[in-house]
Specification:
Tetrahydropterin Synthase, Chain A, 3-stranded antiparallel sheet
Length: 225
């Protein structure tokens, strides 16, 4: 009887080991790529228990399909159109959209973020160079074009990231914006001059209107006399 239980225990362990070689689970938050002899043969996205050939015939590669935040970008000084510099730091929200392409070209998240940094920096410099300083820093909020600039950066990297690397860029944003110290004084002087011009214009318009009212009043008074 003792031998029976020993044999049964061994059989159960062997069965479990064999099943672990041919079964794998796909979670709700991941996509699985099954590689056979080095070539991707299928993609599994539906959660549940799946079957495969044992290693080394087939190997399972798991990829988290949730969105990730990439903001490990340096703070950089960039020159918009017009010459005056700004200090900028941007970020991107991304996800692995094509795991087969991602596995073949990138392989892991660390390399993906290195690639994202290169793409983001290139697009950021290109787009910022097309916009004027006043579209980043301005006393008039209506003239600041953050949303348009972020959309242009997104459009510039979205296609290449998806086609070449299997990465979906969902959002690009400006995380930090500042002005270098040597530019700050010039900016304040220009803002002060702009405010003075607006003030003088308003005062001149008010004086002209008051003068017209006085002239009209004097003309009517003469008519009555």
């Amino acid at each position: 009887m003792k031998n029976f239980w020993t044999i049964l225990s061994v059989v159960i362990v062997v069965v479990i080991l064999l099943l672990s070689l041919v079964l794998y689970q796909v979670r709700e938050t991941e996509t699985v790529i099954v590689v056979r002899f080095g070539d991707p043969v299928r993609k599994e996205e539906q959660p549940g228990l799946k079957m495969k050939f044992p290693q080394p015939i087939e190997v399972v590669h798991r990829f988290d399909s949730r969105s990730r935040l990439f903001d490990d970008t340096p703070i950089e000084e960039i020159s918009p159109a017009g010459g005056e510099s700004i200090i900028l730091k941007s970020y991107a929200v991304w996800a692995i959209a094509e795991p087969g392409v991602f596995l073949t070209v990138i392989e892991d998240v660390e390399r993906a973020e290195d690639t994202l940094y290169t793409l983001l920096r290139k697009a950021q410099n290109s787009v910022v160079g097309k916009h004027y300083f006043s579209e980043f820093v301005n006393t008039d909020p209506d003239k600041i074009q953050f949303e348009q600039i972020e959309e242009e950066i997104l459009n510039e990297i979205r296609g290449e990231a998806m086609q070449a690397y299997g990465i979906a860029i969902k959002t690009v944003g400006i995380k930090l914006l500042d002005v270098p110290k040597d530019v700050t004084a010039k900016v304040f002087e220009r803002m002060k001059a702009d405010r003075n011009r607006k003030r003088d214009s308003i005062l001149a318009e008010g004086n002209a209107k008051a003068e017209r009212i006085r002239s009209d009043a004097e003309a009517k008074q003469k008519e009555l006399l």
